[in-house]
Request: fold
Amino acid sequence: MRVLDDAFTSVMFDLSRLQRTDVDLPGLHRQVRDVDFALGRLCDALEAQRSDDDPPEALARRAFHDVLALGQTLDGADSEDCRTAQILDLTRAAVGELLDTLAPFVSRPDRALRRVVLDGESLEDAIAWMRGQPEMVRF
Reply:
């Protein structure tokens, strides 16, 4: 889980350096809190292995979708300010790392969704890609 922690810390650090410009900071902060909560639940479930928790696969999927939503918001964010634009690029890269880390633990359709939503791939190409991919890793 160290990789998740490092990638999330990078997202938090990069976003903390943003100043109020044409970027919806309160919206980004809400999404980061959602990601934090989802990743925290996933890590707690993996460490504690309690039977009253949601299954790790469901928690990983929730975390993946929350990170994907953050990435989609960042994908539409831009700034004329060079410093802000650079921070947004760094944050997008950190979101990509989080998605890469979670990818083995989510389904092929979820991974294909990333390709459509963030990479701009056509739905047909994503479906073709999905057919050749291995299924997710079980916890």
In short: Residues 25-48 form the longest helix (24 residues).
